[in-house]
TrEMBL record, chain A:
The chain crosses the membrane at residues 32-56. This is DUF2970 domain-containing protein. The keyword Transmembrane helix applies. Keywords: Membrane, Transmembrane, Transmembrane helix. It holds the Pfam family DUF2970. InterPro entries: DUF2970. The lineage of its organism: Bacteria, Pseudomonadati, Pseudomonadota, Gammaproteobacteria, Oceanospirillales.
UniProtKB/TrEMBL annotation, chain B:
Residues 18-115 form the Cytochrome oxidase subunit II transmembrane region profile domain. Pfam families: COX2, COX2_TM, Cytochrome_CBB3. Its cofactor is Cu cation. It is a multi-pass membrane protein. GO terms for cellular component: plasma membrane. It is found in: Cell membrane; Membrane. Its EC number is 7.1.1.9. This is Cytochrome c oxidase subunit 2. Residues 273-353 form the Cytochrome c domain.
From TrEMBL, chain C:
It catalyses: 4 Fe(II)-[cytochrome c] + O2 + 8 H(+)(in) = 4 Fe(III)-[cytochrome c] + 2 H2O + 4 H(+)(out). The chain crosses the membrane at residues 47-68, 88-109, 130-150, 170-198, 210-238, 270-289, 296-317, 329-351, 363-387, 399-423, 435-456, 476-499. Residues 1-26 are annotated as: Disordered. It is found in: Cell membrane; Membrane. It is a multi-pass membrane protein. Cytochrome c oxidase is the component of the respiratory chain that catalyzes the reduction of oxygen to water. Subunits 1-3 form the functional core of the enzyme complex. CO I is the catalytic subunit of the enzyme. Electrons originating in cytochrome c are transferred via the copper A center of subunit 2 and heme A of subunit 1 to the bimetallic center formed by heme A3 and copper B. InterPro entries: Cyt_c_oxase-like_su1_dom (IPR023616), Cyt_c_oxase-like_su1_sf (IPR036927), Cyt_C_Oxase_1 (IPR000883), Cyt_c_Oxase_su1_BS (IPR023615), Cyt_c_oxase_su1_dom (IPR033944), Cyt_c_oxidase_su1_bac (IPR014241). This is Cytochrome c oxidase subunit 1. Its EC number is 7.1.1.9. It comes from Litchfieldella anticariensis (strain DSM 16096 / CECT 5854 / CIP 108499 / LMG 22089 / FP35). GO terms for cellular component: plasma membrane; respiratory chain complex IV. PROSITE patterns: COX1, COX1_CUB. Pathway: Energy metabolism; oxidative phosphorylation. It is an enzyme of class 7 (translocase).
Length: 57, 372, 543
């Protein structure tokens, strides 16, 4: 699971080692990546919103 | 390639030269308020950041284009990945942006703090002029373009403040915090004066806030910034900033005039008086749509000259001017014009351009209707 | 640079691996009917491209009317009513009629060829999506002749200017936009179905060329946001014709709601117009640098990030409508974030050039100009993202400069680069390089003359969408108008070059460019009507 999160984080940041990517694409389950990706997108939105709310105070 | 470089440098120095000779009017004005200067410095900071990034990035690019030309015998390498480089060039822009976000956030918070104002001014956008009301002072007026049509149409030389002049500027005090309450009677407009760094949409059904504390007396010019129909280009904003005591006496003067006008409601007006006053009001308010000669612009703006339906129904005419026609551009003028102006303009419309109804509408009659 | 182009690959060292069997399955209609009824992806692609070029010229003529009026202060040629119709129609036609259909046309031609598919997955639907467009735009153009004139409220058609205060023809405008929207959605479904189902055996998603990738993501964006556009114009329709008050404050409606809905569609829309361009440039630069694309995976990831973020930034178009402070901050932060993956793309292209073996064919020239000039648009985007500063920039010519830099030398240069790049595949002939270079240099100079001064006039205080302006803006406007004329005229060279290339020219082999790798270069040039009837043998190149 941590592996998947790490890879999704790397994708959000936009940089990943080719070897790791090959590994993910050979062994990972796409469903897991998609699910984690959606959750992380939601987390990102909440994070930015939280920063905005704090900054506005 | 070398030729191209020479060209680019030539063009660069030309631009530099041109910008120094034409110095003014190429950049955002720093303006005359604290906020406007903060915005200006944000603008210049982000601009220079972009310039530096641009020089580095395009520098590498043009170096590569020059150095690795096939015609110079370049053989291509085969790398296509480098994680650390990629991490750096993602992280560095991210950090720069965080650095930019901090001061921007601080400025934004100041701009949003409209509390503790010394004076409230209601700004109402109307197709195609601005209405100003000094809240609690019983002073209000409409401000519209004063550049003559003949200048716009090129029949006369264009004046110095072409398109940036109005009949009555908004007068504001220097050194006091003025809060604007912005709204609109019809479509969305946007009240903008670059030197004050105030740009705020005026939206029907909403009241937006903004504020300004002007530091130097002077005349500041701007324009409507949001497309609002045909005469969007012709509704400038002019602000005249006066020292505090000058402003106070100006305001007192205007208050007295308003009181005098209010007392005019009770007396009987003659046809000639009403026609004269009505022509003024018509020219400032109604003529943009219904045309100076009352011919209108079908199908959107009906003609008033020779409009039988209107001439035969005096009550409807009064109703339309007071309450507007919903679903059309015809606005309700009951709160924008005073009873004298309303009576005068209706009388004028019923008797000008060959309309010979002979009707006189008295201010007192309008006053009675408004009070219903 | 002119004389230094490399020798073209010779005809013999390019045997075709597969496909190219031009056998006819059945009797085909001829003449007009052939084009009306065609279900062939190449023919439909051609139709899209011709349609787009036509719209490009019509929209261009409207722009020249605008620029002619703005050549000098004062009203000379047109009245404000007509001027507003010209700006509005120019924007609508260019966005929905020129740029979007051009990308769909390129997708029609190239996606099946690049994934090794015999055709699009849904050929009849394909025909229908195309033919909706000429109907929609004929209708849209005809509104100019209706009483009260055509749309005059800007391509963003903010209510209530576009509802209560709109000309009677607005209902037709809504209908035509509905049709264009349906066409886009159907086209997007078709592209997704093709990419996901018809790839050559052995081609995994991460083996796909970037043009295919960017189009896959674009297609999802289209399906996500076109219904929102449809919704918002339907609400307008109801306000205008059925007495509702969605956007009418007098009836309790909310004009700001319109803007939220519009930009929730509109911001992804601007990325719809640029992502496929990224794909094209990512094909061309490696080809002429003779070096694999740097950071293929990051390119895919950056495209996906941009797509996701593009749903979170819409209100940066609304910084001055009076949003609450928290909202301003949120949208400022997300907008700054989206600039990062955009920057990463530029860095990747430049790293691809680094240590390559570079030649400057016309396609490459346009792709390189894209990188530079698109970045300039990105820089002004970054400036606009600073919310407090946007209070000064908003609704001025500075914004006009920004989006024209990303759309003209951005999207449109990429489209032209793509055309020069793939013309040998389409026609079997190389485009005339000399003509191409003339077209390129005239366009680059014209574009910069037109749009660079707009930064200055905007900063100096000139609002957008005005038919007449104060005297201090006169010089900038005069330069812009001259540049616009030059840019417009030089597009005739483009048409000439394309026609010339269709009719003849130096013969191109299957692999027309030495450094080109993707599957389309394995079928003969010109590509026969039917390709990849049997799936090709795909060997992944290491990206
Ligand atoms: C670095 C990335 C970008 C950033 C940060 C950015 C930011 C912005 C901002 C803040 C505005 C609103 C300005 C205003 O109205 O005051 C804007 C307007 C616009 N942008 Fe961008 N932008 C970026 C890239 C793009 C791209 C790639 C495109 C399309 C290809 C694009 C097309 C537009 C358009 C069409 C408008 C104006 C729409 C209108 O009001 O008519 N931008 N951009
Ligand atoms: Cu946007």
């Amino acid at each position: 699971m941590w592996e998947v999160i790490k890879s999704v984080l790397a994708a959000f940041f936009g940089v990943q080692k080719e070897r790791q990517r090959q590994h993910d694409f050979q062994h990972g389950k796409p469903g897991a990546f998609i699910a984690v990706g959606i959750v992380m997108a939601a987390v990102l939105v909440m994070l930015v919103a939280a920063v905005a709310i704090m900054a506005a105070r | 390639m070398r030729k191209t470089l020479a060209w680019i440098m030539g063009a660069g120095s030309f631009l530099g030269l041109a910008s120094s000779t034409l110095a003014n009017g190429w950049n955002m004005p720093a303006g005359v308020t604290d906020v406007s200067r903060e915005i200006y410095s944000l603008h210049m900071t982000i601009f220079w950041i972009c310039v530096v990034i641009g020089i580095v990035v395009f520098g590498v690019m043009f170096y590569s284009l020059f150095r690795y030309r096939r015609s110079r015998g370049a053989k291509s390498a085969n790398f296509h990945e480098n994680t650390s480089v990629e991490v750096v060039w993602t992280a560095v822009p991210l950090l720069i942006l965080v650095g930019m976000a901090l001061p921007a956030t601080a400025t934004l918070k100041r701009m949003y703090d409209a509390s503790e104002a010394d004076l409230d001014v209601m700004v109402t956008g109307q197709q195609w002029r601005w209405h100003y009301e000094y809240l609690g002072e019983n002073v209000s007026f409409t401000s519209s373009l004063s550049t003559p049509r003949s200048q716009i149409n090129g029949e006369e030389e264009k004046g110095e403040n072409y398109l940036l002049d109005v009949d009555q500027p908004l007068v504001l005090p220097v050194g006091r915090k003025v809060r604007f309450l912005m709204t609109s009677d019809d479509v969305i407009h946007s009240w903008w004066v670059p030197d004050l760094a105030v740009k705020q949409d005026s939206i029907p059904g909403f009241v937006n806030e903004n504020w300004v504390r002007i530091e130097e007396p002077g005349i500041y010019r701007g324009q409507c910034a949001e497309l609002c129909g045909k005469d969007h280009a012709f509704m400038p904003v002019v602000v005249r900033a006066l020292e505090g005591d000058e402003f106070d006496s100006w305001l007192a003067e205007r208050r007295k005039e308003a009181e005098a006008e209010a007392s005019g409601v009770d007396r009987e007006w003659s046809m000639d008086e009403l026609m004269e006053r009505g022509e003024q009001v018509y020219g400032a308010i109604c003529a943009t749509c219904h045309q100076p000669d009352g011919s209108g612009a079908e199908p959107t703006f009906p003609a008033l000259a020779g409009n039988e339906a209107l001439l035969n129904d005096r009550d409807r005419h009064i109703d339309v001017v007071l309450n507007g026609v919903s679903g059309t551009p015809m606005a309700a003028f009951r709160s924008n014009l005073n009873p004298v102006e309303l009576a005068a303009v209706i009388t004028y419309e019923r008797n000008a351009w060959g309309n010979e109804s002979g009707d006189v509408v008295q201010p007192s009659e309008i006053q009675a209707l408004l009070e219903q | 640079m002119a004389s230094n182009l490399p020798p073209k690959p010779t005809l013999e060292h390019s045997t075709t691996t597969s496909g190219g069997l031009a056998h006819e399955h059945h009797e085909r209609p001829r003449g007009m009917l052939r084009w009306l009824l065609t279900t062939n992806h190449k023919e439909i692609g051609t139709l899209y491209l011709i349609f787009s070029l036509t719209m490009f010229f019509i929209g261009g003529i409207f722009a020249l009317v605008v620029r002619a009026e703005l050549f000098q202060p004062g009203l000379q040629l047109v009245q404000p009513e007509f001027f507003n119709q010209m700006t509005t129609m120019h924007g609508l036609i260019m966005v929905f009629g020129a740029v979007m259909p051009a990308f769909v046309g390129l997708a029609n031609w190239m996606v099946p060829l690049q994934v090794g598919a015999p055709d699009m997955a849904l050929p009849r639907l394909n025909n229908f999506s195309f033919w909706l467009l000429p109907v929609a735009f004929t209708l849209l153009l005809s509104t100019l002749l209706m009483p009260g004139g055509g749309p005059n409220f800007g391509w963003t058609f903010y209510a209530p200017l576009s509802t209560t205060y709109a000309p009677p023809s607005t209902t037709f405008f809504i209908l035509s936009l509905h049709m264009a929207g349906i066409s886009s959605i159907l086209g997007a479904i078709n592209i997704i179905a093709t990419i996901l189902n018809l790839r050559a055996p052995g081609m995994r998603l991460m083996d796909m060329p970037l043009f295919v990738w960017t189009w896959l993501i674009t297609a999802f964006l289209l399906i996500a946001v076109m219904p929102i556009l449809a919704g918002v114009i339907t609400m307008m329709l109801m306000d205008i014709n059925f007495g509702t008050s969605f956007f009418n404050a007098a009836g309790g409606g909310d004009p700001v709601l319109f803007q939220h809905l519009f930009w929730f569609f509109g911001h992804p829309e601007v990325y719809i117009m640029i992502l496929p361009a990224f794909g094209i440039v990512s094909a061309i630069i490696p080809t002429f640098a003779r070096k694999p694309l740097f950071g293929y995976a990051s390119m895919v990831y950056a495209t996906a990030s941009i797509a996701i973020l593009s749903f979170l930034v819409w209100a940066h178009h609304m910084f001055v409508v009076g949003l609450p402070l928290v909202a301003e901050l949120f949208f400022m932060f997300t907008t700054m974030l989206i600039a990062v993956p955009t920057g990463v793309k530029v860095f990747n292209w430049i790293a691809t050039l680094f240590q390559g073996s570079i030649t400057f064919e016309t396609a490459m020239l346009f792709a390189l100009a894209f990188v530079v000039l698109f970045s300039i648009g990105g820089f002004s985007g970054l400036m606009l993202a600073i919310a407090p500063a946007d209070f000064q920039y908003h609704d001025t010519y500075f914004v006009v400069a920004h989006f024209h830099y990303v759309l003209v030398p951005g999207a449109i240069f990429a489209i032209m680069a793509g055309v020069y790049y793939w013309l040998p595949k389409w026609t079997g002939h190389y485009p005339d390089e000399r003509l191409g270079r003339w077209h390129f240099w005239m366009s680059v100079i014209g574009v910069n003359l037109t749009f660079f001064p707009m930064h200055f006039s905007g900063l100096a205080g000139m609002p957008r969408r005005i038919p007449d302006y104060a005297l201090q803006f006169a010089d900038f406007n005069m330069v812009s108008s001259v540049g616009a004329l030059m840019f417009g005229v030089s597009q005739l060279l483009f048409v000439w070059g394309v026609i010339k290339c269709v009719r003849g020219g130096e013969k191109a082999p299957a692999k027309a460019w030495e450094g080109a790798e993707d599957l389309e270069w394995s079928v003969p040039s010109p590509a026969p009507l039917h390709t990849f009837d049997t799936p090709p043998d795909f060997k992944p190149v290491t990206h």
